[in-house]
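Lab notebook, bench 4. Still working through the backlog of constructs that have no structural model yet. Next entry is a single chain of 77 residues. Request: give me the structure tokens for it.
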Amino acid sequence: MNFTQKEDGSCDINFEDNEIEIIKKHKKIHLSALSLRHFGNCLMRIVVNFHEQFPNEIKQTVTKEDSEVIVEKPKNV
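Model written out:
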């Protein structure tokens, strides 16, 4: 999977065909300890890059434990 951030601060998460098949079949993915380590390192880099590109009003947004993450279909489909 890879993450593509847009100029407006939004993001697409793109999955490989094999990842889609795993998710379809199992409704989840499993990361080994080593894969989780790499994913975490990549995620930290992504978080820093995302934050730098967010508009100021988004940067000031506070996320709480019960904050809802709304998933949308891609706009360019």
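Notes after review: The chain has three helices and two strands. The longest helix spans residues 33-53. Flag for follow-up if needed.
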